[in-house]
Design a protein that fits this description.
Layout (H helix, E strand, L loop, with lengths): L1 H12 L16 E2 L3 E2 L2 E5 L2 E5 L19 H34 L3 H24 L3 H15 L3 H9 L1 H13 L15 H11 L4
Antiparallel strand pairs: 1-2, 3-4
Helix pairs in contact: 1-2, 1-3, 2-4, 2-7, 5-6
């Protein structure tokens, strides 16, 4: 959908980046036939066999107002896996864009640079974002808030102006989304936060 693509482009051109989070790559620690690969480690002068295992995340009961069937739960995982990488792209792309903007002394040069970035982003991500559903777009808006610690509306208003922010908010509302949505990892988005941790360590 061009609406989602345009908003994504706006995200890629605006705002600074908050502290980055590290992801842990999952490693296969088993061999066929239920054998385990042991390695020798010396601790306090004693050599002992050890095995690398996947990280285990232990959490309490997730407090959320959302109740869903298993099929909706599986769909949520699918949607998160699809849009989460884009929120990381936004985070990293913003960093590089901001670094380049610091090197450009005049507004005219900055505008020219941003137009070129916008052209490049459309060419690179247009097909992918066109395939996103409204539900995936809503998740992306929340995840961008998670990665940048700012609402999408505030980011656009700060770097593209109040008019652009109001324009995209009005378009978003037509599609049932809200650029002012905030990510709440301890409330309604607690399940999403748990699933994201599982995605980051490769468990799902």
């Amino acid at each position: 959908m061009r609406f989602l693509l345009s908003i994504l482009v706006s995200f890629l051109l605006i705002s600074s980046v908050s502290a980055q989070t590290d992801t842990v790559s999952a490693k296969n620690d088993t061999l066929p036939g239920n054998y385990y690969r042991l390695h020798e480690v010396e601790r306090n002068g004693i050599k002992l066999p050890e095995i690398n295992i996947k990280e285990v995340l232990i959490v309490g009961r997730v407090q959320t107002s959302q109740k869903m069937s298993y099929s909706r739960y599986e769909r949520l995982i699918y949607n998160l896996k699809k849009v989460y990488p884009y929120s990381l792209i936004v985070r990293s792309r913003l960093a590089s864009v901001n670094e380049e903007l610091k090197k450009i002394p005049d507004d005219r040069g900055r505008r020219k640079y941003l137009r070129q970035v916008e052209k490049d982003v459309f060419g690179e991500y247009e097909d992918d974002v066109r395939d996103m559903t409204i539900t995936q777009g809503k998740l992306l808006i929340k995840l961008i808030n998670r990665e940048t610690a700012n609402t999408s509306y505030d980011l656009i208003r700060e770097y593209r102006g109040t008019f652009s922010a109001a324009f995209w908010q009005s378009i978003a509302r037509i599609f049932g989304t809200n650029l002012k949505d905030k990510y709440d990892p301890e409330g309604d988005d607690a399940l999403i936060e748990l699933l994201l941790h599982q995605i980051e360590i490769g468990n799902i």
